[in-house]
Amino acid sequence: MLVMLRRLAGLENLYHLSATFDRLPTVISELHKAMLDHVYPYAKRALRLEVWEDELPRLAQELHQQGCLIPTCCGFIVGTIFKIRRPTDGEDAAYNGWKRMHATK
Q1: What is the pTM of this model?
Q2: Strand order in the sheet with 101-104
Q3: pLDDT tens over the chain, length 105 residues
Q4: Which of 17, 31, 39, 49 has its CA 20 to 30 A from that of 6?
Q5: Is residue 74 within 8 Å of residue 59, measured between CB atoms?
Q6: Are 59 and 73 a contacting pair, CB within 8 Å?
Q7: Cα diameter, the chain
């Protein structure tokens, strides 16, 4: 389970996980797939957007009222901040004052 969660978080690639868990990359990949195959049947209903379809406009409106620059955004995938180069357009939207860098989530 830990392998799957760390791989889905995207913070480490297959080779970093291989070193962390002292297993070959192919074994890590097989473990990850086996866990996904085990978890997916239980989570597939929650992962379908049709289940949340009636709530999406309300979520987008609330996010926009809180300052989200994209009026149709209804949620975020992860909260990890990734540093990016300073963009030529939309620099203000990409600047993260908390981390004092240009970033995207």
Answers
A1: 0.45
A2: 82-83, 101-104, 95-96
A3: 778 877 777 667 788 888 888 999 899 889 888 988 888 888 777 767 677 788 888 888 998 999 888 888 877 766 677 777 777 777 777 777 777 877 776
A4: 49
A5: yes
A6: no
A7: 48
